[in-house]
């Protein structure tokens, strides 16, 4: 019998006798080692949010997928606070540290791992991890390690949801939170079932998406909606969130994702590439006042290829208030971050990756101000930075300029109805060398990219070129420099 957690803790470690396997090699028989000896070790749910008087119960599965019997060593590496305990049990016995197990071909064994938060009196001891390492004793190069994390709903203020796939961007968020007074624990969305019950106990949730796809699944959105409707505080960051949910080109959006985005954030998608990786704060804003952010290079993740543009939904009651604008290359500023305060919940949304901010000082300051925004009384938001839609067409300067690979332009089509638009590149002799766009565009903001080639796909020489926008009777030209 498995027994109660207390009974398991009282058990003496069972000595599991290893079997010395003899490997007989038959000359002339081409059997691959990997086919003879291989195994899998899996766990469908590697993170748990638990009450301090319960235990984190993880079910893992070890399977011999090779053609031969094999022995496996199972080791528990524990990173547990206080006097927390952990015990692992096969159906036939339990152990605290390590065990050897012999398995026949195709044999499957279930290994349950319990993390038991015996002492949570210290507010900093709400997170514990046990990494279970399994390796073949016949072929030690074959090894698997699975980290199992339990987070108590006391002693932890902030749940960090790592939704970046296999990247390690969580280190930027964790380091920034370490500089605050807010305690935190991290769960990985790719390996953990995260629903509203997991989010609910925490004062705030930090959720980031990196470049992973899909972005915010149906289950993720349901969990976030329930958390926010319960009075939650959400800091969410990712360069492709608005694009994935609101742009048909992403392959992920539909009417339901657009409605969710606009209803939760009271804002709309404005474009998939901001054309600049610099952002300015807004004077008087409690989060961004006096801040200028560079989201390229430095000590950041340097991963921003398509930061989103977002904007308030014009004509609607304002719940979304600007926090950062992309550096104003244009006749009106593009919003790159905003807060949402509905009276029920609060959100800080960055349409770029926080992890890409190029220095730890700015990351720490921004995180501190975001947490203070969550903790303070219901704010009286400033409408500084809210702007009206432009009334005329225009073409932005290109970015970067000079360039040696690609450069981008932002253009704006005014009014309510689609209009004929052309964007062309000319050399210094006035000769047309490339048509970038010729057709009818809907009103709004659009991005055009030029790769320095002519209409035949040939690389053009370094030098000065001109980009001309034509919208109906309106015409505007910008100068740019191609530097090979």
Provide a descriptive summary of the structure in words.
The chain has 484 residues and is mainly beta. The chain has three domains: 5-148, Immunoglobulins (Immunoglobulin-like); 157-375, Class I glutamine amidotransferase (GATase) domain (Rossmann fold), CATH 3.40.50; 394-482, Immunoglobulin-like. Helix content is 14%, strand content 37%. The protein has helices at residues 5-10, 33-36, 170-178, 196-199, 218-229, 241-246, 255-265, 360-375, and strands at 39-42, 47-50, 56-64, 70-79, 85-90, 93-95, 98-103, 108-116, 127-136, 143-152, 158-162, 184-188, 204-208, 233-237, 267-271, 278-281, 292-294, 309-312, 320-326, 335-341, 346-350, 394-395, 407-413, 419-427, 432-441, 444-450, 463-471, 474-482. The strands form six sheets. It has a nine-stranded mixed sheet with strand order 12-11-13-14-21-20-19-16-17, sandwiched between helices. It starts with a helix and ends with a strand.
């Amino acid at each position: 019998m498995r027994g109660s957690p207390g009974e398991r803790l009282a058990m003496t470690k069972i000595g599991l006798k290893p079997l010395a396997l003899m490997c007989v090699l038959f000359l002339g028989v081409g059997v691959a080692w990997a086919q003879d000896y291989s195994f899998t070790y899996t766990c469908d749910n590697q993170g748990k949010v638990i009450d301090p008087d319960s235990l984190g119960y993880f079910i893992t599965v070890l399977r011999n997928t090779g053609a031969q019997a094999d022995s496996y060593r199972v080791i528990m590496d524990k990173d547990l606070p206080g006097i927390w305990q952990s015990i692992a049990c096969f159906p036939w016995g339990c152990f605290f540290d390590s065990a050897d197990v012999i398995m026949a071909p195709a044999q499957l064994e279930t290994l349950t791992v319990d993390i038991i938060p015996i002492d949570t009196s210290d507010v900093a001891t709400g997170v514990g991890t046990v990494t279970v390492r399994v390796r073949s004793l016949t072929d030690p190069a074959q090894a698997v390690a699975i980290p199992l994390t339990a987070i108590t709903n006391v002693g932890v203020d902030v749940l960090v949801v790592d939704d970046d796939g296999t990247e390690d961007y969580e280190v930027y968020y964790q380091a920034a939170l370490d500089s605050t007074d807010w305690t935190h624990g991290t769960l990985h969305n790719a390996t953990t079932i995260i629903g509203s019950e997991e989010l609910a106990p925490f004062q705030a949730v930090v959720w980031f998406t990196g470049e992973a796809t899909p972005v915010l699944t149906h289950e993720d959105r349901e969990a976030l909606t329930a958390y926010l409707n319960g009075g939650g505080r959400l800091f969410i960051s990712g360069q492709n969130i608005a694009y994935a949910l609101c742009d048909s080109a992403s392959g992920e959006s539909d009417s339901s994702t657009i409605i969710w985005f606009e209803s939760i954030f009271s804002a709309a998608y404005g474009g998939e590439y901001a054309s600049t990786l610099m952002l300015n704060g807004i004077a008087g804003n409690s989060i961004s006042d006096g801040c200028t952010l560079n989201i390229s290079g430095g000590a950041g993740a340097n991963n921003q290829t398509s930061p989103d543009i977002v904007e308030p939904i014009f004509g609607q009651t304002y719940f979304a208030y600007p926090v950062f604008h992309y550096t104003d290359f244009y006749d009106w500023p593009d919003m790159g971050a905003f807060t949402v305060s509905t009276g029920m919940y609060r959100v800080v949304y960055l349409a770029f990756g926080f992890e890409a901010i190029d220095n730890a000082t700015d990351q720490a300051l921004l995180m501190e101000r975001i947490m203070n925004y969550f903790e303070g009384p219901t704010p009286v938001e400033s409408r500084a930075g809210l702007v009206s839609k432009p009334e005329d067409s225009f073409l932005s300067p290109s970015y970067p300029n000079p360039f040696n690979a690609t450069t981008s332009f932002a253009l704006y089509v005014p009014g309510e109805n689609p209009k004929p638009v052309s964007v062309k590149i000319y050399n210094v002799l006035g000769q047309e060398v490339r048509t970038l766009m010729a057709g009818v565009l809907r009103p709004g903001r659009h991005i055009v990219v030029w790769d320095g080639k002519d209409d035949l796909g040939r690389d053009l020489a370094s030098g000065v070129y001109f980009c001309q926008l034509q919208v109906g009777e309106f015409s505007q030209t910008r100068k740019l420099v191609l530097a090979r």
